[in-house]
Design a protein that fits this description.
Elements (H helix, E strand, L loop, with lengths): L3 H28 L3 H27 L29 E5 L13 H13 L3 E5 L2 E9 L5 E9 L4 H4 L2 H27 L2 H12 L9 H4 L4 H51 L5 H28 L8 E4 H16 L5 E5 L5 E4 L1 H18 L5 E9 L2 E7 L22 H6 L6 H11 L3 E6 L5 E8 L3
Parallel strand pairs: 6-8
Antiparallel strand pairs: 1-4, 2-3, 3-4, 5-7, 8-9, 9-11, 10-11
Helix pairs in contact: 1-5, 6-8, 8-9, 9-13, 10-11, 11-13
């Protein structure tokens, strides 16, 4: 069966069918003994017979004309012993041998029929006809007429009479077990393949491009199996595209290094042969070649981090000393714009990490702050211990960024403001490299706008202990 919809429909239909079967099969056992219904029969007969006794005694002693019970009594509605209230008296009919009701009241067909049989048999008859409980007795009035006194008590059994708790409890228990078992089976069948799908989806969203569902789920012949196979095909396609992109980026970066090196050599030859008039253009070419070399280096570093190649082995290091060096280098460049980089080191901030990689991460974060802070302002770098780890916050005094861009700035080649980043020489790789370097150390990186203005980038790293 390939349709999950059809399976669900048939399972629910089967569950309802089994409930009906259990009801039908157990009905004979359930109706063999119903004390509540027996109590109703006894109560109805008792009240009906008492009405007949009173009417028959009155007719035999006084006659029909003085009998008050045949007038104005509607059908009595009693409830038996379990109802908690007294049932009304039965309605009394007095009929002669022709079937005529002597008080002029229209008698139901059941009453006429039982009166005929009572007068023919000459003895009392009691029976139930539908919702009517009938008791009929032959009497002779003082004038010698043979009459039939019939009491009709309309008292349908209530639900409490039809249900017997002892018999009902096991019956309901069986139904709950049957339906519960089928529902549990259906729930497990529907949810069991969802867990592998969820795990694979989460792994893929976390960057594991090798995540696949596979297993029994992909072997299913229904819609869930098709979904699992489509997911595996999608993940395989994404992995192939990303691998191709990284391979292209790596190959292009390597291929650019050779002509760039030849360009630098040619530049030196041109400088040695050219006069002073060419010094300005040649200096410009040298600066652009240097920026291109830095870009290639960043691309190669990003590619290595994406591939999980973190380079050096992790060692225990003093993060305050490392940041002091990075802040000093960044502060030297910032001084040209009148910007100051202040560092507030903490005590005992040691981490286990790769010095070259961490230096590159913090260098990119701090230089990004220097580039975007207002000229003549201050960039603050704070190092503190927090929850068994260390926390580094870098705050600039720039304009900040939109709330919807706080996560995107850590993506490769993302620019908040195209023109400004181009003028500052940025291509959107610095924070992306920093984010991957921090995560490679088991840390976290995030950005937020400061209430007083500027952007705050926070790096959290686990401690060395």
């Amino acid at each position: 069966m390939r349709s999950l919809f059809l399976r669900i429909f048939l399972w629910f239909w089967l569950a309802m069918a089994m409930v009906v079967v259990v009801l039908v099969v157990t009905s004979p056992f359930f109706t063999r003994s119903r004390p509540g219904l027996d109590d109703w029969h006894r109560d109805a007969e008792s009240w009906t017979r008492s009405s007949v006794d009173r009417a028959a005694g009155h007719i035999e002693a006084v006659g029909v004309d003085g009998h008050p019970l045949g007038r104005g009594h509607g059908p009595g509605r009693g409830s038996g012993r379990g109802a908690g209230r007294r049932p009304t008296p039965a309605r009394v009919f007095i009929l002669d041998e022709t079937g005529r009701e002597l008080h002029g009241v229209e008698a139901p067909p059941e009453v006429i029929d039982i009166s005929d049989r009572v007068l023919s048999a000459g003895e009392e008859i009691s029976e139930r006809s539908g919702m009517l409980y009938l008791v009929a007795r032959p009497v002779v009035d003082p004038n010698g007429r043979s009459l039939a006194v019939v009491a009709a008590h309309q008292s349908p059994p209530r639900l409490v009479h039809l249900l017997e708790p002892k018999a009902l409890s096991w019956r309901l228990g069986v139904l709950f077990l049957v339906v519960g078992g089928l529902s549990f089976w259906l729930s497990r069948y529907l949810t069991s393949p969802v867990a592998p799908l969820r795990r694979a989806t989460r792994a893929l969203s976390d960057g594991d491009l090798t995540a696949r569902v596979e297993g029994k789920v992909t072997g299913r012949k229904d819609e869930i199996g098709e979904l699992a196979r489509d997911f595996d095909s999608m993940a395989e396609r994404i992995e192939g595209l990303v691998d191709s992109q990284q391979r292209l980026l790596r190959d292009v970066s390597h291929e650019l290094r050779s002509p760039l090196a030849r360009l630098v050599v040619a530049l030196e030859l041109a400088r040695s042969r050219a006069g002073d008039a060419a010094a300005g253009p040649l200096d410009r070419i040298e600066r652009e070649a240097g920026r291109l070399d830095d870009l290639i280096g960043q691309l190669l570093l990003l590619e290595r981090l994406e591939a999980g190649n973190t380079g050096d082995d992790a060692v225990e290091l003093d993060l305050a000393a490392l940041l002091t060096e990075v802040v000093g280098d960044a502060g030297f460049e910032a001084a040209a714009e009148g910007t100051e980089v202040r560092f507030y080191p903490g005590d005992g901030c040691r981490v286990s990490g790769r010095p070259t990689l961490l230096r590159s991460a913090f260098d990119n974060v701090i230089r990004n702050a220097v580039h975007h802070t207002e000229p003549g302002s201050v960039v603050d770098v704070d190092l503190t211990t927090s929850g068994g780890g260390v926390e580094v916050t870098v705050r600039d005094r720039g304009p900040g960024i939109g709330a919807d861009q706080l996560e995107k700035i850590f993506e490769p080649f993302y620019r908040v403001e195209e023109a400004r980043d181009r003028s500052s020489g940025g291509v959107g790789l610095g924070l992306a490299i920093a984010a991957r370097a921090v995560r490679a150390h088991g840390g976290e990186i995030s950005a937020a706008n400061h209430p007083d203005g500027g952007l705050v980038v926070t790096v959290r790293l686990p401690g060395s202990g």
